Amino acid sequence: MLEATDITVRLGRREILHGVDFRARPGELTAIVGPNGSGKTTLLRALTGDLSQDGRVRLNGQDLSSLRPWVLAGLRGVLPQATPLAFPFTVAEVVRLGLMGGIEAAEADLVPKALARVGLAGFEGSYFQELSGGEQQRVQLARVLAQVWRPTANGCPHWLFLDEPVSSLDIGHQLQVMRVARDYADQGGGVVTVMHDLNLTAMFADRVTLLAEGRVLAQGTPADVFRDEALSRAYRCPIRVNTPPEGGTYLLPHAAGQVAAE
Amino acid sequence: MVVISPDTAAAWDRALLARRTTVLLALVLLTVAACSLTTGAAGTSPWTVLADLLAGREVTVADRVVLFEIRLPRLAMGALVGASLAVSGAVMQGLFRNPLADPGLVGVSAGAGLGAISAIVLGGFLPAGLAAALGYYAVPVAAFLGGWASTLVLYGIATRRGRTSVATMLLGGIALGALAGALSGILVYMADDAQLRDLTFWGLGSLAGATWTKLAAAAPLMCLALLYAPTLARGLNGLALGEAAAFHIGIPVQRLKTVAILTVAGATGAAVAVSGGIGFIGIVVPHLLRLATGPDHRYLLVNAALLGAALLILADVIARIVIAPAELPIGIVTAVLGGPVFLWILLRQRGVLDL
């Protein structure tokens, strides 16, 4: 269980988050959505222990601030939006950086397994810096997966925190990465991901937190949160949620003029 | 199920290559060290002297002095200074996530130099008890403090929100170096005749003045930094992903940075204190090794120490040979060898650096 209560974050003189409460359960994929600048990434960074904040974050019942970095690294992996790499490491060497905690080091073939999981089998010897942006993003995901390879260990769930994991990917790889996250949750791990794409969120998420201007606007299942009125207010643009008879949900913005005409 | 044969695994695994390089470099270091012992203005042969000593035969005082009081301390000093400069370069590049970070280039050596000069010129103002306690260690310790202060300031200038800017680092380093140089100039201006003599000897930038006393004063700091550096390897590897991701994979980033900065300051400070400014070792050695065996700091730091030691001893041998029986300052030799290599690195990195 991941519980955050009354999270307030100030960066410089600006207050980014104002008393946010957030919960995520293992076995579920929890998405954080909201317009640009609503505090999604800041909330994720508070949950991963990157920021000092007012309020309390508890991961698997333990206070986040009481966990040493290497202990925390055994519980949760984090995929940032972009990870620049300083030196010419190979793909395999980058993925192996995720194993530094030594937690999963016993599994020798974890590097090729993690790469195969993100569709990059055989890329072990390539130089990371020579890959395309989308490939680099998936190598980083493989590194994060290798770090917390088993979704649970001794009944204790592991967690994936993903910051816009599909933002630089084509539609096929978007689905692939979301399926990896979905599987992780289905096998008992916890997944918390910042999302821009509302349709993918509707497709894959169990629970959604909608942020706007540093506050929680709505929280619940996608069906609860994705309503025309709440989304339109959060994104300041008219959005229509469609649920066709054949199943599924898709969201479309529509021109303001049409709203007026209706 | 695809079975990965050892051969395909080795194709991306540069660890084996790096370990073989360690063995090779150790052999090279031994060879170069032997050359250094046999080279010099006096025609002493270390092997004859050793054989005579072992056989209990008489050895002339001159031969004994040349071997044990001149060549041996000089060899030890060259090895320690070369290893220290190369390792502090590698650690600094890992810390700044940048292949151009070098103590000499970004003002850390200048800061250490300012510390050393302060100790020589202002040492008289220290409380008598403290001065006595420091003794020979005053200059290396002051150089360490100067190097430490300038590394701290530089990291503060160049790093914002866990990202390091190359341009800010280089420009900040120029400013720091200029400032340290100016302050050093003021101190030199204030110095009396005896101090000026000390300063001149210190500033020669050479291994020629190596004595066991001088070595004993600086060696503890250098050895400490050299022995401690390999423990930073995993952390520096993680730091290549940036500070945030390094924390995510379990590295205590703040502590790593503190210790890395202390290591750089210790190694650079002590090296500068005994040998003045010797450039380019810190940038050329790690770069060549990264090209050959990859950037993994677990091997890079050890190999850098070996190659740095071997290169500086070799430079010293060259400095003694080219205009024998006189000798060139070793700083000139490393600059002639290192300058072009540095330019080559710069040209190769031009696209990546985005300056």
Give the key terms.
heterodimer; A: 262 residues; alpha/beta; Rossmann fold; 6-stranded mixed β-sheet; 4-stranded antiparallel β-sheet; 10 helices; B: 355 residues; mainly alpha; ABC transporter involved in vitamin B12 uptake, BtuC; 2 strands; 76% helix; disordered N terminus
Describe the structure.
- The complex is a heterodimer of chains A (262) and B (355).
- By secondary structure, chain A is of the alpha/beta class.
- The model of chain A has no long low-confidence stretch (mean pLDDT 89).
- Chain A has ten helices and 14 strands.
- Helices cover 33% and strands 27% of the residues of chain A.
- In chain B, α7 runs antiparallel to α8 and α14 (281-293) crosses α15.
Taken as a percent bin, the fraction of beta residues of chain A is 25-35%
Count, helices of chain A: 10
- In the predicted model, the low-confidence regions of chain B spanning at least 5 consecutive residues are 1-11
Separate helix tally of chain B: 16
Shape of chain B: globular
Percentage of residues assigned to helices of chain B: over 70%
Compact description:
The complex is a heterodimer of chains A (262) and B (355). Chain A is α/β, with parallel strands linked by helices. Chain A has helices at 40-48, 69-75, 91-97, 110-117, 133-147, 171-186, 198-204, 222-225, 228-235, 256-261, and strands at 2-11, 14-24, 29-33, 54-59, 62-63, 76-79, 152-153, 156-157, 159-163, 190-194, 207-212, 215-220, 239-242, 250-253.
Q: What layout of secondary structure does this protein have?
A:
The complex is a heterodimer of chains A (262) and B (355).
Chain A: E1 2-11, E2 14-24, E3 29-33, H1 40-48, E4 54-59, E5 62-63, H2 69-75, E6 76-79, H3 91-97, H4 110-117, H5 133-147, E7 152-153, E8 156-157, E9 159-163, H6 171-186, E10 190-194, H7 198-204, E11 207-212, E12 215-220, H8 222-225, H9 228-235, E13 239-242, E14 250-253, H10 256-261
Parallel strand pairs in A: 3-10, 3-11, 6-9, 9-10
Antiparallel strand pairs in A: 1-2, 1-4, 4-5, 7-8, 11-12, 13-14
Chain B: H1 6-12, H2 15-38, H3 46-54, H4 61-96, H5 108-122, H6 128-134, H7 138-158, E1 159-160, E2 163-164, H8 166-190, H9 193-203, H10 212-228, H11 233-239, H12 243-248, H13 253-275, H14 281-293, H15 297-321, H16 330-353
Helix pairs in contact in B: 2-15, 4-10, 4-13, 4-14, 4-15, 5-7, 5-8, 5-13, 7-8, 7-13, 10-13, 11-15, 14-15, 14-16, 15-16
